[in-house]
Amino acid sequence: MSEVVEVKVLSGLGWEDCRREKLLIDGKQVMDVRPLSECPEDAILERDLKGPSDFAEMLETFLREHKGKKVRFIYEEDTDE
């Protein structure tokens, strides 16, 4: 098991020419952010929206699972869009 946790943010533009981002931790996608233009009802129903409690829970889980490891942050353009 590696002693370095890789946190990668992939950024790119979608078909609607708006920014999209993915968050991967050790190669596993844990979050994606995209415009609500493709599914506007999500903005009303809050299905895809993340808030402070979601981030706090994710950070708490991250720290618990990777206790004592170094973290490498990587920011790249996503070429899959």
Write a brief caption for the model.
With 81 residues, the chain is an alpha+beta fold.
**SS-derived structural category:** alpha+beta
The rough form would be described as: flat
The structural domain count equals 1
Radius of gyration: 15 Å
Low-confidence stretches are none
Number of strands: 4
Mean pLDDT reading: 80
The N- and C-terminal alpha carbons lie at a distance of 31 Å
Placed side by side, the strands forming the largest sheet appear as: 3-2-1-4
Helix-strand sequence: EEEHHE
Helical percentage: 10-25%
What is the overall number of helices? 2
Which strand-content bin applies to the residues? 35-45%
Instruction: Characterize the biggest β-sheet.
Output: 4 strands, mixed
Please, could you describe this protein's structure?
The protein has 81 residues and is α+β, with helices and mostly antiparallel strands. The protein has one domain (4-77). It has 2 helices and 4 strands; from the N terminus they run βββααβ. A hairpin with a 2-residue loop joins strand 2 and strand 3 (28-33). It starts with a strand and ends with a strand. The mean pLDDT is 80.
